[in-house]
Amino acid sequence: MSGQYWFPNMPIPEIMTALSEWGLNVSNEQLVRPSSDFVTGVYNACLEQVTSISPNMLHKPIQRALASIDDANPDLYNNAISHNIMLYHLTRFATSARIMDFSSRDLSAPEPERTRFILSAFINFVKFAEQCTTFISNVREKSAQVIEEREQVIQELSEVQHNLAVLKAQRAKDEPKCEQLKEENAAMTTQLLAAKDVHTGLTKEIESLKIERAHLQARNETINSESALLMDNNSRTRSRIVQSPERIKRNIMTMGTTAIEDKKAVALHEAKARDLQAKISALVNIEKDVRSCIEQLQTTEKEVQLLEGSQKELAELKDSLEYKKVERGELQKKTERVHKQLGNAQEKLERAQRHAEEKRQASQQTVERLQRDYEKMDVERRENDKQVEELRMEASDIETKMAEHLKKSEAELNELLTEYWKLRHETEVYMETLANKLNMNVSSD
Question: N or C, where is the chain less crowded by C-beta within 10 Å?
Fold first, then answer.
C-alpha cells in the first residue's frame, strides 16, 4: 500500500515522538491495537494542527443543521450529523495528504497497519504545513479576503435586487395613476387651449369696450364743458336781456327735452357700464379658472418630473445591477484564478514534500554514516584514552623522577656553590698574602 505513494511508512517510535511534540501522549499498545475513540482523537488533532478546525468550532454549524430539521426530536440526529461533518473535513484533509481512499471505516473499525499508514501521511503533511506556514497563511488571507468580498457583493446584489423589486412594484402601482394623470393633463391642456382662445376674444372685446368707454367719457366731459359754457352764456345773456315768459317757457321746454335726452344717454351708458362690469367679473372668474388650471398643470408637470426622476433612478439601478453582475463575473474569475493558484500551490507543495523526503532520506543516510563514524571514533577514543592514561602515568613517574633529580641537583649545586665560595675566599686570602709579601697592589676585582 505504501509503495503507491511517495511518503514513507513511519515506525511506531517516530509516530509517538511526532505526536508527543503536539502534546499527544500515546502508547505503543494504542498504536498496535487502535480503538475508534483513539484514532478519532488523533486524527482530529492532526486536522486541528493544519486547519484549526476542532469539534468545538463545529458546534454552531451542527446546531444550525439541527434547527433546520423538521422533526419533533432533532437531538436524535446530533451524533450522526457531528460524525458526518467531522468525516467530511477528515476526508478533505486525507485527500490533501494523498490518501484517496479514506472512509468512515478508518474511524469506526481501525486496523493497525492502516492506522500507522494514515498517521504517517498525516504527520508528514502536518510537518510540511509547518514548514510552509508563511505561504499557507498568505493563501488563507487571500482566500478569506475573496470570500469576504464575495459575501459583500452578494449582500449588495441582494440589496440592489430588493430596491429594484420595490421600484418595479412602485412603478407598477404608479402606472395607472400616471396614465390617468396623462389623460387628465391632455384634457386640461385642451380646456386650457379653448379657455385661452375665449380669453383672447374676451380680452379683445374688453379692450374695444375700454376704448369705447374712454370715447364716451371724453364725449360726456365735452358735453359737460359745453353745458357749463352754455349755462355761463345763458346767465350772462339773462343778466343783459329782459326776461320774456314765452321765451323762458320755450327755453325750459328745450332744456327739459335736452335733460331727458341726457338722462336717456346716461341710462344707456350706465347699462353699458353694467354690461361691461358683468363681462369683467366673468373675465375675472375665467382668469381664476385659468390660474387654477395652470396650477394643476404645474402640479402635473412636477409629478411628471418625479416620474421621470424615478425612471432615471430605475435606469441607473439597472446599470448598477449590470455593473454588479460584471463585478460578480470578475470575482468568479478571480475565485477560479485563486483555485488555480491553490492547485499550483498544492503541486508545489507535493514537489516540496518529495524534495523534503529526498532530503530526509539523504539526511537519514548521512546520520547513519555519521553514526558508524561515531562508533569508530568512540572505539578509537577509548583506545586513545587508554594510551593517554598510560602516558599520564609515565608522565607522573617522570615528573616524580625529575623532582627527585632536581632535588639532588639542587643539593649538589648548593654543595658546589659552597665549595666555590670557600675556594674563592681562600684564593683571595692567598692573593692578598702574596701581594703583601711582594709589595704588589692587587685589587679584589
Answer: C
